């Protein structure tokens, strides 16, 4: 009986935390807005001093100097002198909204059982009013690619904006790509605190053959008239039509080359690498094949004993210098809670070789291009979504990343979270202003 009560209390407690609504999503933009006199980082490598950024009906309609704009055309004027404007940051390969509390199984929906799951759509499991989701917005992360985990073919991702009632309100690009966890050519034993040995994966050839067989069957199924419907194979159709991207999760040099060649041999043309720790070793290969890389979290230790201690920090620079399109992702331990630190990953890349505006592109325009959403977001340009924010200083520096205003598709969103509420509450308790 005692055990039953504990289980019941855990379920009730977990469900109450998961189901509690957070900040009310902002209504559709009604009044036109003009932001004046800020330093605008356009996200394409350019900076506009003393800028004027205007938007109406959720779309940017002017990007120019503050001296060249007619203020009378706008109903709301924001004087942002001394501040800086940025495009909203984009978090790719994210499980935001898929897990609320790791210890509560009923709130964990990031993976599905099975090996080949292209038909699993992460979007319908996305919880738009997650407490974790709201905590990333105050640092400028306003969009994310919601991505499933597990198996060799993990499932299908979708891209959302982070201020919505429900997943169908949040989505900005549905089923953008399918994610594949490509087998490693090596097996590692031990743990992070006590590393073991590294040896060849004896099953590597067999595992590749299994994946190749799956894609061959999928290609035949989607290019001929099938006698019986197969939902799993049918879910891959977009890969062969060039409508979806195959996101290959891989880090080793051989692993990435084998994965790309396997995909291309099966007629898959849109490919991106996720992770890419050793991608700098095959930069020319990636460039020739027009393959972008979403680099694994750069705030990490080197993977090999003989690696440069600073290698993770330098990877973006090494790849950029080779002409590879590079973005940043933040998966790994505590990935959902760590998503808020995405801008500071870019800041580290700037500290280790990239120009500051190049580093900004890693989490704006470059990521938008890799995800196939650059036609409407990723930069501050006329005609694109007004998804942007105003910071008191450099948004890639944790000391000065302090947002005063944020907008998603022109809507003025709340920057309050349960954490900011607790901060104010206990400041009041101890008479701190």
- CATH superfamily assignment of the largest domain? Metal-dependent hydrolases
Oligomer: single chain
Q: Cα distance, first to last residue? A: 49 Å
SS element count, helices: 14
CATH class of the largest domain: Alpha Beta
Number of domains: 2
What overall form do the CA principal axes indicate?
globular
Average pLDDT figure: 92
Category by helix and strand content:
alpha/beta
Topology, number of strands: 18
Biggest pleated-sheet summary: 8 strands, mixed
Q: Report the helical percentage.
A: 25-40%
Name the poorly predicted regions: 1-21
CATH topology of the largest domain: TIM Barrel
The CATH architecture assignment of the largest domain turns out to be Alpha-Beta Barrel
In percent, how much strand structure appears in the residues? 15-25%
Return Rg in Å: 23 Å
Report what the structure shows:
This protein has 2 domains: 26-88 and 378-433, Urease, subunit C, domain 1 (Roll); 90-376, Metal-dependent hydrolases (TIM Barrel, Alpha-Beta Barrel), CATH 3.20.20. The chain has helices at 2-19, 131-136, 167-170, 204-223, 231-234, 237-241, 253-265, 283-288, 311-321, 335-338, 342-351, 356-361, 365-371, 418-429; strands spanning 33-41, 47-56, 59-65, 76-79, 84-87, 89-94, 141-146, 153-161, 171-181, 186-190, 195-200, 245-250, 271-275, 292-295, 326-328, 388-391, 403-408, 411-412. It contains 14 helices and 18 strands. Residues 1-21 have low confidence and may be disordered. The strands form 3 sheets. Strands 1, 2, 3, 4, 5, 16, 17 and 18 form an 8-stranded mixed β-sheet that branches. An 8-stranded mixed β-sheet has the order 6-7-8-9-12-13-14-15, sandwiched between helices. Helix 9 crosses helix 11. It is globular. The chain has 433 residues and is of the alpha/beta class. Keywords: Signal. This is Amidohydrolase.
């Amino acid at each position: 009986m005692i055990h039953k009560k504990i289980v019941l209390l855990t379920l009730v407690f977990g469900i109450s935390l998961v189901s509690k609504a957070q900040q009310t999503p902002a209504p559709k933009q009604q009044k036109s807005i003009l932001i004046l006199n800020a330093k605008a980082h356009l996200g394409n490598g350019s900076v506009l001093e003393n800028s004027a950024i205007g938007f109406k009906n959720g779309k940017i309609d002017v990007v120019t100097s503050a001296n060249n704009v007619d203020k009378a055309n706008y109903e709301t004027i924001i004087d942002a002198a001394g501040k800086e404007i940025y495009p909203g940051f984009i978090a790719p390969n994210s499980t935001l909204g898929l897990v609320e509390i790791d210890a509560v199984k009923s709130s964990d929906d990031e993976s599905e059982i099975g090996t080949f799951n292209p038909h699993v759509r992460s979007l319908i499991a996305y919880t738009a009013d997650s407490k974790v989701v709201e905590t990333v917005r105050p640092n400028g992360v306003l969009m994310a690619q919601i991505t499933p985990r597990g198996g060799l073919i993990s499932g299908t991702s979708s891209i959302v904006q982070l201020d919505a009632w429900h997943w169908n309100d949040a989505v900005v690009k549905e089923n953008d790509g399918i994610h594949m966890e490509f087998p490693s050519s090596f097996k590692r034993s031990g743990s992070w605190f006590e590393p073991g040995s590294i040896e060849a994966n004896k099953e590597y050839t067999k595992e590749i053959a299994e994946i190749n067989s799956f894609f061959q069957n999928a290609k035949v199924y989607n290019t001929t008239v099938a006698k019986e419907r197969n939902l799993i194979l049918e879910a891959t159709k977009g890969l062969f039509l060039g409508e979806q991207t195959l996101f290959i999760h891989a880090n080793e040099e051989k692993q990435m080359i084998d994965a790309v060649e396997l995909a291309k041999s099966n007629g898959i043309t849109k490919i991106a690498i996720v992770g890419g720790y050793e991608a700098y070793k095959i930069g020319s290969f990636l460039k020739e094949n027009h393959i972008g890389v979403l680099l694994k979290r750069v705030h990490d230790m080197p993977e090999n004993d003989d690696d440069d201690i600073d290698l993770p920090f330098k990877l973006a620079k090494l790849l950029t210098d080779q002409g590879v399109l590079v973005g940043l992702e933040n998966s790994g331990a505590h990935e959902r809670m760590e998503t808020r630190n995405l801008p500071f990953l870019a800041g580290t890349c700037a500290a280790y070789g990239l120009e500051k505006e190049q580093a900004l592109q890693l989490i704006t325009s470059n990521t938008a291009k890799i995800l196939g959403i650059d036609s409407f977001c990723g930069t501050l340009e006329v005609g694109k979504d007004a998804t942007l924010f105003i910071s008191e200083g450099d948004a890639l520096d944790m000391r000065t990343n302090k947002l005063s205003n944020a907008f998603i598709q022109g809507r003025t969103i709340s920057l309050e979270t349960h954490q900011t509420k607790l901060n104010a509450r206990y400041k009041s308790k101890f008479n701190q202003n």
